Amino acid sequence: MDDLRTTLATFSPDDRKEFLRFLQRQRRKEKGRKDAQLCELLWHKQEYSTAELLAKLYPPDEPNATAYYALRKRLLRQVTDFLLLKQRDQDLTAASTVRGQLSLAQYLFDAGIPRLAWATLRKAEKLAAQNEQYELLNTVYNLQIEHAHGEHAEPLDDIIRRRNRNKPAAEEEERAAIAYSLMRARLRQARTQGRHHGPVGGVVPFDQIMNDILREYDLQDAFGRRPSLLYRLLSIARSAMLVRRDFASFEPFVRRCYHLMEKRHGFQPAHREYQLGLLYMIAHALYRNRRFPESVEYLQQLRGLIENGPRSHYNEFYPKYIFLLAANLAFLRRNAESIQLLEELLRTQALNPRDQLTARLGLGFHYFAEGQYQRTAHTLLTIGRSDHWCEETMGVEWLLNKNLGELLTQLEMGNPDVATHRLRAVERFVRDRFGPDGGAYRYVLSYLALVRDILDDPKAASRPAFAARVAEMPRFLPLEREDLQAMSFYAWLRARMMGRPYYDVLMELTAAQPVAPPAPVSA
What is the C-alpha end-to-end distance of the chain, expressed in Å? Predict the structure, then answer.
């Protein structure tokens, strides 16, 4: 795979035009033309080999491999410079401004203008302190200490005193970053292996892991004081919740933490990214608890913030906002609006690979709910990635949802042979990965057995014996607390049994009593 081509492929049409102008400004005319020519070739739909690129870039009798690789290195440097400048332009946060002032101060010291350098450092210190950028503030103090010998410097004792006062908060941020990375590393394996698939085949003690790490890094009380730490620690708790499917416990807890922080300390503009992350956590937990109108309310708050914030926040959160809004609307009997949202997103936004997969699988579900099976099949086909790649990128359960969706789509389209082939492939995958009985995914094998009966005899679902087997199908959680993806597949079986439209049955199942929250959790 050509890494340079892969990187350039992420550019939107506007980015491509802007980058070509950037190339022309950076180089002499002749070199600029070569850079731009290679860029255009790498953007071409056809992926050219090295030999083909040499032939297109240089005269037939002078295929210059040395010049070609030098050209690639130069183009990669230019891509890096362009992206750094673009990120700097889009990142209007206080942290970005402080980093820029630090760079300017260092340049001014090196250029022999200490008076102006110290004035810049004082601005950086004030801004970092106002926005609780403790790690950057520590860097400011270290640079002040380094240059405390000059005539324009502040008293060294004062600088050291301020630095020592700031140090505990900076160290707390460092400990939180370490704890967060440790938790993500320990949960990642469980996320990719699937639900409750621990190192010894049992339930992974996520609560114990989390509590041990928080105790080790002295972070038990830190989340109540600062938005950045609150967000990181709730991200850890959310990761555990996603594996255990414990949305009912998590949702009131994260809402309480958010509103306490909002009431006691508020969210400064520099905290906007953390506020957006917390709002998304709340909206997602409400969705999984089937509190769809409340989830939409929090999503509207999130939308208002990203529309008035820096472009970087928009790029990060807008796709997530659309995915969750579309999912909520589908369960509010507004599925046509969900389709419009996702179609527009795919048409107008340059999405990263994970967001591309999420959008296409979600759109396939919405088409399926409308009975548009040809569109469903086409949308799933446009994912265009191997099962291995999808599993590595998105995890086991995403892959199973995709493959089960393909299976049911082919069945509904009247392609029993293709559907049977997909069924066998999914069954083989589950047995090979989790053992002959399916392990934690034995419910998938039970589900596939019922689908096989329908493939063998389309009238099987209407018989009492079939309904009895559905009732006995093992489930990971009681139906009223099962996640919505699993319920969607269950609803398809119910619709077949009842001879009714799938979407109507799904709406009736999810419109049952929403998951009730437990007793309030103290913050």
Answer: 49
For residue 512, give the nearest of 289, 256, 250, 245 by alpha carbon: 289
Give the contacts of 517 (CB within 8 A, at least 6 positions apart). 248, 251, 252, 289
What angle is formed at CA 369 by the lines to CA 241 and CA 316, rounded to 5 degrees?
Answer: 45
Please report, in tens digits, the pLDDT of each residue of the chain (523 residues total).
578 888 888 887 778 888 888 888 765 544 557 888 888 888 888 888 888 888 888 887 776 788 888 888 888 888 888 887 776 665 556 677 888 889 899 999 999 999 999 999 999 999 888 877 888 999 999 999 999 988 888 899 999 999 999 998 888 888 888 887 887 776 665 555 544 444 433 444 555 666 777 777 777 666 666 787 788 778 777 776 766 666 777 888 889 888 988 887 778 777 888 899 999 999 999 998 889 999 999 999 999 999 988 887 888 899 999 999 999 999 999 999 999 999 999 999 888 888 999 999 999 999 999 999 999 999 999 998 888 888 888 888 899 999 999 999 999 999 999 999 999 999 999 999 889 988 878 888 889 999 999 999 989 998 999 988 887 764 543 444 446 777 788 889 989 998 999 999 999 888 754 444 433 333 3
Report how far Cα 519 is from the mean position of its chain's Cα atoms: 30
Alpha helix positions (H), 12-113: 13-26, 29-43, 50-57, 65-90, 94-110
Whether the CB-CB separation of 10 and 350 falls below 8 Å is answered with yes
Burial 35-55 (b: 16+ CB within 10 A, else e): bbebbebbeeeeeeeeeebbe
- Token duo for residue 241: 């919740």
The DSSP secondary-structure symbol of 310 reads -
- Determine the angle formed by the axes of helices 50-57 and 29-43, rounding to 10 degrees: 140
Neighbouring residues of 317: CB distance < 8 A, sequence distance ≥ 6: 276, 280, 302, 306
Q: Which among 104, 129, 103 has a CA at the least distance from the CA of 116?
A: 104
Q: How many other CB atoms sit within 10 Å of the CB of residue 121?
A: 27
Taking Cα atoms as reference points, which of 342, 346, 351, 317 lies closest to residue 10?
351
| H helix intervals, 91-133 | 94-110, 114-130
